[in-house]
Amino acid sequence: MLALAPGADRVRHTRMPPTFSMVERIASFGHALRGIAELVKTQPNAWIHAAATCLVCALAAILGISAREWLAVVLAISSVWSAEALNTAFESLCDAVSPDRDPRVRRAKDVAAGAVLVSATGAATVGLIVFAPRLLHLVR
Fold this sequence. Notes:
It is a single chain. The protein has helices at 22-42, 44-63, 67-97, 103-139. It is an all-alpha fold. The protein has a domain at 66-140.
């Protein structure tokens, strides 16, 4: 079990409420882009997602899917990328907090990986619904 530092069970608010700063908002985009670059650079599953994203977008453009179908495809793609990014962040945090093997950490990581699988399965289903009728029509 992780031990908390004395007083860690109490939340202390010592900072002033944040104020809006355009410079900080622009910097936050830089942090996000750095995170995406790290995801793509270090995660083999992200390479698979990137290839699938390119393939699906090319196929959608070639087959001329409707705006509603594009909406479904874009939401499916962003769902998978978001799940993969959150899974990667969660696994990194788990490894930092608990570098030793712990069955609770393994279970948490497995659940996070399962979320990616659920999202990818949903995206594949969207792909079948959108593309299968068009592809079958081409074969006939």
